[in-house]
């Protein structure tokens, strides 16, 4: 490879290391070109699967400020530069390796730390971000639906109680009772006047 070509490859790999949220190093010995294309398709557009010489990978990682173990870069290596969900990428690599034993997951870098093959497998067994968001949305939808039912029930109770409050407004019967109770008092007040007339008429007889 010409020097200019090497410089271009190193520059590209350096940017890949810098832009990746996680990286997974694999050994692809024995994979056919067709299988490699199928692997790239399975990883999707958020993961770049690059094949390069180990020496160039080391230089690029160093330029990007990424520490990578020499043990990872032995044999024919290819690196998955993950800019999307690392869990999805780990799942894709794990599933592809099950069907294609020639692909070997050797380790990688996750959250700025070196991770082993076993740790990547644990990562692959986690639920993806999309699944977790779907579950969260389902839980929130259920909670909102429950809250809506509670509010509807409260509204119905309030609306059912409104006519009762309206019927309690009239107070005319109370006023009528007061008028009736005042009539006997007026009759009692007029009674002494009759008695006085009768008393004054008695001496003339």
Properties at a glance:
205 residues; alpha+beta; Alpha-Beta Plaits; 2 domains; 5 strands; 63% helix
Overall mean pLDDT stands at 79
Q: What is the total domain count?
A: 2
Q: Hey, roughly how much beta strand do the residues contain?
A: 5-15%
If you consult CATH, what is the topology of the largest domain? Alpha-Beta Plaits
Low-confidence stretches: 164-168, 184-205
SSE succession: HEHEHEHEEHHH
Determine the CATH superfamily of the largest domain.
Ribosomal protein L10, N-terminal RNA-binding domain
> How many helices in DSSP terms?
7
Please provide a written account of the structure.
This protein is an alpha+beta fold and 205 residues long. The protein folds into 2 domains: 3-126, Ribosomal protein L10, N-terminal RNA-binding domain (Alpha-Beta Plaits, 2-Layer Sandwich); 132-190. Helices cover 63% and strands 13% of the residues. It has 7 helices and 5 strands; from the N terminus they run αβαβαβαββααα. It has helices spanning 3-19, 33-43, 54-63, 86-99, 117-124, 129-167, 172-201, and strands at residues 22-27, 47-51, 77-82, 104-110, 113-115. It has a 5-stranded antiparallel sheet, sandwiched between helices. Strand 4 and strand 5 form a beta hairpin. The radius of gyration is 45 Å and the shape is elongated. 19% of the residues are buried. Residues 164-168 and 184-205 have low confidence and may be disordered.
């Amino acid at each position: 490879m010409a020097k200019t070509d090497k410089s271009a490859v190193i520059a590209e790999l350096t940017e890949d290391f810098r832009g990746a949220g996680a990286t997974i190093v694999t050994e692809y010995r024995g994979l056919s070109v067709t299988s490699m294309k199928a692997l790239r398709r399975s990883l999707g557009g958020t993961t770049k699967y690059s094949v390069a010489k180990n020496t160039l990978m080391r230089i690029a990682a160093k330029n990007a400020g990424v520490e990578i173990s020499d043990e990872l870069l032995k044999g024919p290596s290819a690196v998955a530069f993950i800019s999307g969900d690392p869990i999805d990428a780990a799942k894709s690599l794990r599933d592809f390796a099950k069907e294609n034993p020639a692909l070997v997951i050797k380790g990688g870098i996750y959250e700025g730390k070196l991770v082993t093959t076993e740790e990547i497998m644990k990562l692959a067994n986690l639920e993806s971000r999309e699944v977790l968001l779907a579950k969260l949305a389902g839980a929130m939808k259920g909670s909102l639906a429950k809250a809506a039912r509670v509010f509807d029930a409260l509204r119905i109770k309030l609306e059912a109680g409104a006519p009762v409050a309206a019927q309690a407004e009239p107070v005319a019967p109370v006023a009528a009772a007061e008028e009736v109770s005042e009539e006997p008092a007026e009759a009692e007040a007029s009674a002494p006047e009759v008695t006085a007339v009768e008393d004054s008429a008695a001496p003339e007889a």
